[in-house]
Amino acid sequence: MKKKFKAISTKALVLTFGIGTLASCVSDPDSPGLEFMPDMYRSPAIETYVDYGWVKETPNVDAMMTQSAKHPPVNTIPYMGKVEDLEFYLPYHRQVTSFAPITHGLQAKHGWNISEEPAGDYFKSAEDKNPIELTEENQKAIFNQGKKLFGINCAHCHGEKGNGKGPMVESGAYLGVPDFANLTELADGQMFYSIYYGKGMMGAHAPLLKNKEIWTVVHYINKLQSEDYGVGSATEGVVSDSTNVEAAEQ
Ligand code: HEC
Prior knowledge:
Elements: H1 2-24, H2 38-41, E1 54-55, E2 58-59, H3 61-64, H4 100-103, H5 139-153, H6 155-158, H7 167-170, H8 188-197, H9 211-225, H10 242-249
Antiparallel strand pairs: 1-2
The structure holds heme C.
Heme C binds at residues 153-154, 157-158, 168, 174, 176-178, 183, 186, 190-191, 194-195, 199-202, 205, 217, 221.
């Protein structure tokens, strides 16, 4: 009796495995055969901008009516440059003055780093060095790029030569634009700070320029302040015609 039972159970086992194995076999070599949990074989595709109102054939109206594309979280690092420029995309560590939300519209909820101090980190920023190092080879291209950026973003207030007499000032629309010749003591880091966050009647340029571009303009302001600024034989004039500016960028 015991022996018979054993024989039956062995047969049953072989049969179960046999059927199981055969049932999971299919002629298509790319198919996994019988799927125990299909979700494990095929993960649901998550695609941006596709509404997920349908969950398991059931419409979910709430999900359908909710915006799926969200703003990136605060302090997300935008990155669309070269790998060697990655450091320029890191968040600026200096805090802006406590009154910047009122004077310059920089709100903490939008990710601006607001200080509790009225002076913010303005004076501390004097310690920051320009991360773009000038060399004999690269300086001409940097000054030309700086000149171009300055012409587009700053000259209408600061004037082509940085004397504070741009067309906006001449027209009487703006007052209090300094002559860079009077700011020779201003540290590079403070220039960056003021351009980035804005200062007085000058708006914040962080939303307009990449950090690398601001540091490039800082080099150019130094060049405006002193023709001798630069490495070695830096006294050659800055190229003024646009073809050369474009060539220098490459
Ligand atoms: C709308 C006019 C305007 C524009 C555009 C403008 N500035 Fe200014 N800028 C000012 C005014 C006004 C001040 C004086 C701010 C103060 O000291 O209250 C100033 C001050 C500065 C200072 C001195 C900051 C300091 O810490 O004392 C620098 C450097 C500077 N600007 C650079 C730039 C650069 C570079 C650009 C272009 C990217 C630019 N500015 C665009 C109006 C402007």
